[in-house]
Amino acid sequence: MTRFAALSLLIASPAFAGGIDHVPSEFQTIQDAVDYGTAPVIQVAAGTHQGAMLTRTVTLSGDTGAIIDRGLRARGARMGIGLTSDASGSEITGLTFDCTSRKLELGVFGSTKTLRGAADSVVISQNNFIGCIQGVTNAGNPTESCSPDQVDGGAYWVIEDNRFTGFETTNANGGNGGGIGVVLFNAQMADVVNNEFEGRVNDTGAFSTAGVSIAGCKDCTIAANTFAVEGGTHYWSAIANNGYYQAGAAGSSGLIIADNDASRDSAPMAGLNFRSFDSVNTEFSDNVGMALVDHEICGDGALALIQ
Question: Are 50 and 68 spatial neighbours (Cβ–Cβ below 8 Å)?
Fold first, then answer.
């Protein structure tokens, strides 16, 4: 059994026994259901909804047509679902995050610094992210560059079977740069598996854009994802390790990057643009349409291209 498969079994969905709180028939908003409901499951009906901050463990499940198109403030940007440390063990499934509404920039957002703590054991599955600056964000605090041990972002996240489209490369207020599907910054034991990255990207911004952006991740797995994004010119990569550019990024270690298919992706040079401080013990296997660009020594700027 692969590591990400075993992790998926470890982080099982919370049991549906014990009741379901319904939005909007019982609680007008998702936030009301979080704050005043007690059931382990919040079921969101079809329609457009305001986002929420999860402050307890809950399964947040959307009916077909359940759309979050209005967000909460997070360092100048607006997030759909925020995850505090008290939301550890939560699952988010079946929702559409519509960032084309211009009232939403970030989809699911976890940040040790911004939200004063990291949520662990989070499952994000079967959601749609449309036009988001960052679709899913798992971010720890900035740390000493090159250190692979000082990571305090969320642990044991499973991000699987989601669809990311319409990558919007816009600098949001507060320093949240985008066109990125999944952001892993100083995180640990995160699995990004079986996701689809499709549509078009506008990558005219002078910063890296990617389906999956890693900037310091320990024992993380990026596997069995498909990338078919058009419009990438210079900055876009299917998977990018941006620790070299991101201030305070720890060294990545113990990465598994396997079975990804970028054969239909528009990245001009390398489907995988792998630039990071001291990335060690990386397994890179059975990827299609990708090359590997890696720093050989921490911070020395030397690059090696591996086909």
Answer: yes
| Strands (E) located in 117-274 | 123-125, 128-130, 134-139, 158-160, 163-168, 180-188, 191-193, 196-202, 209-218, 221-223, 226-230, 236-241, 256-258, 272-274
In angstroms, the CA 289 to CA 51 distance is 37
User: Phi-psi category of 77—alpha, beta or left, where left has phi over 0 and alpha has psi -120 to 50?
Assistant: beta
The pLDDT value given to residue 236: 80
d(CA 160, CA 92): 11
Model confidence, pTM = 0.88
The SS3 call for residue 10 is helix
Range 3-306: architecture per CATH:
3 Solenoid (2.160)
Secondary structure element (H or E) that encloses residue 32, with its range: helix 30-36
Q: Can you tell me the mean pLDDT for 143-152?
A: 71
Q: Is the pLDDT of residue 224 over 70?
A: yes
Tell me the C-alpha to C-alpha distance, in Å, between residue 250 and each of 47, 154, 178, 191, 244. Answer: 41, 14, 20, 18, 10
**Which residues contact residue 265 at a Cβ distance below 8 angstroms, ignoring those fewer than 6 apart?**
197, 227, 228, 229, 232, 238, 271, 289
Mean pLDDT across the stretch 125-144?
A: 92
Taking the domains of the chain in order of start, what are their residue ranges?
Answer: 3-306
What is the four-CA torsion angle of 291, 297, 303, 306, rounded to 10 degrees?
A: -30
